[in-house]
Write a structure and sequence with these properties.
The chain is 36% helix and 25% strand. The chain is an alpha/beta fold and 391 residues long.
Length: 391
C-alpha cells in the first residue's frame, strides 16, 4: 500500500514504553445524540517508541497498540519507513478497513514520522514541510446535557477566545425533540451575532426525512454546516439530502481511509472532515485536504487537537482543526507540553523536535491517573521482553 509520504530512512525499533491510564474524567458528564461519551474521555494509554538512535515517537493510543503493532515491529529488523508501513498494512488489512487495528496502524504511522523528525532535529510539522508554526481552529462542544444558559455561556466564551466558528450538538432525546434543538440554535445565534459561524452536529441520529425536516427548521439561523445528520455510510441517503437541502453537509469522522472520501465527493458532501486518530495513514489527511481543494470544498480535521496541530500547520487558514473542548481539555491536562491556544489558533513550539506534546508522567503518578508502565524491548529472535511496574 503506497503512503502519501515517501521517506526512505531506515528504522530499527529498540524499545517501547506503554503508560496504562486509569479513566480520565471530563469536566462534566457529556452526551451527544447517540449517548457518547459519558463521564470519562476515551483515553486508554500513552506510548513512546524508540529507535536504536534514541529518537522517539509518542502518542495517546489504545491498548491495541500492544497487541497489534508492537509484536510486529519489536524484532530488531531494519526497514525503511515505507517498508515498515507496507509490511504492517498487509498484516492488518484483513481485520477490515474500519477496524481498530487500522486505527492503530495510523497512530504508528505518526510515531514513525515523529522518530524521523527527531533524528533531523525538527518539529514534526517543519519536517513535513510546513512553513508556519500555527494551525487554525474552530471550537466545539455543546453537550445535550447542558442547560440552554450553559450552552450559550460556552459558545459565547469560545467567541471571546477568538474563535470565528463554534459548534454544538443537536439531536435531543435521540432526535425526537427538534423543538429544543431549534430553540438552542436560536439562542446561540442571538448571543453570538450574525458574523460568527455556527455548526450543528447530529452524530448520525436521523433518517433522511427527519434530517430534511430539521434542516428546514434551522435554515433561518444560517448554520455554517450541518454535520453528520444521517448514517455516515448511507451514501444514497447523503445524495438524497444533497439534492433537497440548501445548506452545507459535513461528513468524515467515522471514515478510516481517503478512498471513501472520493465517494463522499461524488455524493455531494460539502465539508470533508477526517479524524486524525482514526485514519489508517497520516498522509490520508493531506490526500483528503487536496481532494477538497481540487473540488472547492470545505476541509477540516478532528481528533486529539494537540497532536493534530502538526498537520494543521500544513493547512491553509480556512482549513481548520476541530478543538472539541470537552474531550481535548482533559487530554491536554495530562500533558506537560502542548501547543498554545490563542486567538483561534494553536501555536506549535518551533524548537520542540518531533512530537508537539509530552506526557506529564509525574503529575499523572501523583493524581492516580497512571495505573502502570510496561516496557517492551526488541529482540533479535522475534520475541519481546517486558517489564511491568504497577502504581
Amino acid at each position: 500500500m503506497k503512503n502519501y509520504f515517501t521517506f526512505d530512512q531506515k528504522i530499527v525499533f529498540s524499545k517501547a514504553v506503554y503508560y496504562d491510564l486509569n479513566p480520565v474524567r471530563g469536566k462534566r458528564t457529556w452526551r451527544d445524540a447517540t449517548g457518547g461519551f459519558g463521564d470519562f474521555v476515551p483515553l486508554q494509554g500513552w506510548i513512546e517508541v524508540y529507535d536504536t538512535e534514541g529518537a522517539c515517537g509518542r502518542t495517546f493510543c489504545s491498548s491495541g497498540m500492544l497487541d497489534n503493532i508492537l509484536p510486529l515491529v519489536m524484532t530488531g529488523e531494519s526497514r525503511t519507513y515505507q517498508e515498515w508501513y507496507h509490511y504492517l498494512y498487509w498484516k492488518l488489512r484483513n481485520f477490515g478497513f474500519q477496524s481498530g487495528q487500522i486505527c492503530d496502524l495510523g497512530q504508528f504511522d505518526r510515531i514513525m514520522l515523529e522518530i524521523m523528525a527527531e533524528r533531523e532535529q525538527k518539529p514534526l510539522h517543519r519536517f513535513l514541510g510546513a512553513e508556519k508554526d500555527w494551525a487554525a481552529i474552530y471550537k466545539g462542544g455543546g453537550s445535550l446535557l447542558l442547560t440552554d444558559a450553559e450552552l450559550v455561556d460556552d459558545m459565547t466564551r469560545y467567541v471571546r477566545e477568538g474563535n470565528t466558528t463554534v459548534k454544538f450538538k443537536v439531536g435531543s432525546d435521540w432526535g425526537r425533540d427538534m423543538d429544543r434543538d431549534v430553540e438552542r440554535l436560536r439562542l446561540v445565534r442571538e448571543a453570538v451575532g450574525p458574523d460568527i459561524g455556527i455548526a450543528v452536529d447530529g452524530n448520525q441520529v436521523w433518517e433522511v426525512e427527519d434530517a430534511l425536516r430539521f434542516a428546514d427548521r434551522i435554515r433561518k439561523y444560517e448554520p455554517e454546516w450541518f454535520e453528520e445528520p444521517i448514517h455516515s455510510h448511507d451514501m444514497n441517503g447523503i445524495r438524497a439530502l444533497r439534492e433537497r437541502v440548501d445548506m452545507k453537509l459535513g461528513f468524515g469522522e467515522s471514515i478510516r481511509n481517503a478512498f471513501a472520501f472520493e465517494t463522499y465527493v461524488e455524493k455531494g458532501v460539502d465539508h470533508l472532515m477526517p479524524l486524525v486518530g482514526r485514519v489508517s495513514a497520516m498522509g490520508d489527511l493531506l490526500k483528503i485536504r487536496d481532494l477538497a481543494r481540487s473540488h472547492g470544498l470545505m476541509f477540516s480535521s478532528g481528533g486529539t487537537v494537540w497532536q493534530n496541530a502538526s498537520f494543521g500547520a500544513l493547512y491553509r487558514e480556512d482549513e481548520r482543526l476541530e478543538h472539541h473542548e470537552p474531550m481535548t481539555q482533559p487530554m491536554g491536562e495530562c500533558l506537560s507540553v502542548k501547543p498554545e491556544e490563542r486567538d483561534g489558533r494553536l501555536y506549535l513550539h518551533p524548537d520542540l523536535y518531533g512530537s508537539p506534546v509530552r506526557l506529564d508522567v509525574e503529575k499523572l503518578e501523583r493524581n492516580g491517573t497512571l495505573a502502570s508502565i510496561k516496557i517492551i524491548h526488541a529482540s533479535q529472535n522475534n520475541k519481546t521482553f517486558a517489564v511491568r511496574a504497577s502504581y
